[in-house]
TrEMBL record:
Protein name (record): Protein GrpE
Lineage: Bacteria, Bacillati, Bacillota, Bacilli, Lactobacillales
Main location: cytoplasm
Keyword annotations from UniProtKB, A to Z: Chaperone, Cytoplasm, Stress response
PROSITE patterns cross-referenced by the UniProt entry: GRPE
Length: 205
C-alpha cells in the first residue's frame, strides 16, 4: 500500500480531527494530573514528617523529665528514711541515757559523803552523824545502781585507758604488779555502756 493510501490528518474528516485533538489533550491533562497528585502527596508527607519528629522530641523530653522526677523522688525518700533512722536512734539514746546528766551531778555528792566518812568519830554524837552519812551514801549508791550507774573496778586491776585515768605512776614491786592499778584517788563510774567518769588512779610501772 502506498503512502497515498493512508490518509493524513488533513485528509481526515473534521470530526475525527477534533476527537484526536481532544484525546491528545486528555493524555496531557492526565500526565499533569498524575504529577500534581504526586506533588501533593510529597507536600502532604513533609508536614507529617516534621510533626513526627516534633512528637519524638517531645516524647524524649518527657521521658527524661520523668526520669529526673523519679530520681528526685527516690533521693527524697532516701533522705526521709535516713532522717527517720537518725531521729529514732537519737530518741532511743535519749531514753537509754536519760539519767546520765543527773547521775553525773550526783557523783560529786557521793564523793563528799565518802570523804566525810573518813573522818574519825570520837564521841556518840559524831558516831550518830557518821551513821546517818553512811545511810545517805548507801541510798545514793543504790539509786545510782538502779539507774544503771555502777562503780568501775580499779584497785588491783590491770590498767585500762578506756576506764582508768592515770594521774601518777610508781615503781612496780614485781612483774605481776606492773601496769596494774595500785591506788584509787577518785572512783570512776560507768552508765550502762558509757564511761560516766574514769577512775583516777596510780599505776605501777
Amino acid at each position: 500500500m502506498s503512502k497515498e493510501e493512508f490518509p493524513s490528518e488533513k485528509d481526515l474528516p473534521q470530526e475525527d480531527q477534533e476527537k484526536q485533538a481532544k484525546a491528545a489533550e486528555a493524555d496531557k491533562a492526565g500526565v499533569k494530573d498524575d504529577k500534581r497528585v504526586k506533588d501533593d502527596k510529597e507536600e502532604a508527607a513533609k508536614p507529617a514528617d516534621v510533626e513526627l519528629d516534633q512528637l519524638k522530641a517531645e516524647v524524649a523530653a518527657l521521658t527524661q523529665k520523668n526520669k529526673d522526677l523519679e530520681d528526685k523522688y527516690l533521693r527524697s525518700q532516701a533522705e526521709i528514711q535516713n532522717a527517720q533512722r537518725r531521729y529514732s536512734k537519737e530518741r532511743a539514746n535519749l531514753v537509754k541515757y536519760e539519767s546520765q546528766r543527773l547521775g553525773k551531778d550526783i557523783l560529786s555528792s557521793v564523793d563528799n559523803l565518802e570523804r566525810a566518812l573518813q573522818v574519825k568519830a570520837d564521841d556518840e554524837a559524831s558516831r550518830q552523824l557518821k551513821k546517818g552519812i553512811e545511810m545517805t551514801l548507801e541510798g545514793l549508791v543504790r539509786a545510782l545502781k538502779d539507774n544503771g550507774i555502777e562503780e568501775i573496778k580499779a584497785d588491783g586491776e590491770k590498767f585500762d585507758p578506756t576506764l582508768h585515768q592515770a594521774v601518777q605512776s610508781v615503781p612496780a614491786e614485781n612483774d605481776e604488779q606492773k601496769d596494774h592499778v595500785v591506788q584509787v584517788l577518785q572512783k570512776g563510774y560507768v552508765y550502762k555502756d558509757r564511761v560516766l567518769r574514769p577512775a583516777m588512779v596510780v599505776v605501777a610501772q
